[in-house]
Amino acid sequence: MDKIISNKKRILFLTTVATTLHGFIMPIALVLKKKGWKIDAGATDIYAIPQLRNVFNKCHEIPWSRNPFHIKNLKALVKIRNLVVQYDIIHVHTPVASFFTRLACAFLFNFKAKLIYTAHGFHFHPEGNLLKNSIYLIAEKITGYLTDYLIVINDEDYKVARKYKFVSPECLIRMNGIGIDTDFYNPARVPERTMIYLKHYLKIPTKAPIITMVAEFNNDKRHIDLIKALSMIIKKKEIYTLFAGDGPLFLKTKQLVEKLNLSHYIRFLGYHKDIKSLIKISTIIVLPSLREGLPVSIMEALSMETAVIATNIRGIRELLSNGCGSLIPPKSPQILANTILDLLDDLELRINMGKIGRKKMQGKYEISKIISQHNDIYESLVK
Fold it and tell me: Which CATH architecture has domain 187-361?
């Protein structure tokens, strides 16, 4: 059995940063290991997340940079060349890791591993910079011919991939994101005492409305739009906001909040383990992003029957269709403020959104279905 696993069932997951492995890949890896696969992983700062070493058979530190033009990526390229030859299947996620990995494999003599790329939302998009859009589009075209399977996670990316013919039609796969465990993300699983404790710990009045945003602090997520909206709302209604997440703009965003004298109403939580409970105590989840694939934070909110307001962009509009949430234009703090106030005043609408949203997540978005799809693809490649 060991010989079979070592020689025929070895998968290497590669992402630019380790948080992607932790947030997206771990649930899939856990199930696949039980099915007999040997699952390894590589990313930047992979040893900073101890749980990853417990899930993956082996962890590799890869010196990627999110900046595609950084010299570190050339060093990573050399390491990848020596690493990928040990595996039967290489599954890459995120643009930088996927581009340089596929590029490295192109220059390997007699390379036999199968390459799968999951695009968590192509980096070129209608709201993006024209030059950057062009660069990312060219990169996808260049490396597409090296890809055995391209997995996309929303309808719009599927249409784009077909339009530009990144891969042949039979090698293009549509999945519903990374899936959601609706048994875990279940409002009934958060006891009343937990909610009371959390509000007390966060120093939020028991009956005060709470707006929560779960997202990395970067330019695409547009925390600034929610902050501007809150500065308008505070003049009319007492409301508290939770920011869960970390990222390059964390300190800058915190400084802006202090400058606007909003610190009393806004809590910066950093990385938070119990997102489920945060969503449960929230009145509304907000995500004013410019770019998404199929955002997990919204899937979690819908599963928890919590109302959502988010931007009318790729991936989000797919999740919030048919009454699951409210859509607003990108970069529109005033409209966001008005939408929050309207939804706060309409309890019945919030309840209906929650029920519709959970029912939607319990269908094709269930994580068990996504894991089964992955397993089927891998099995077909090692036969």
Answer: 3-Layer(aba) Sandwich (3.40)
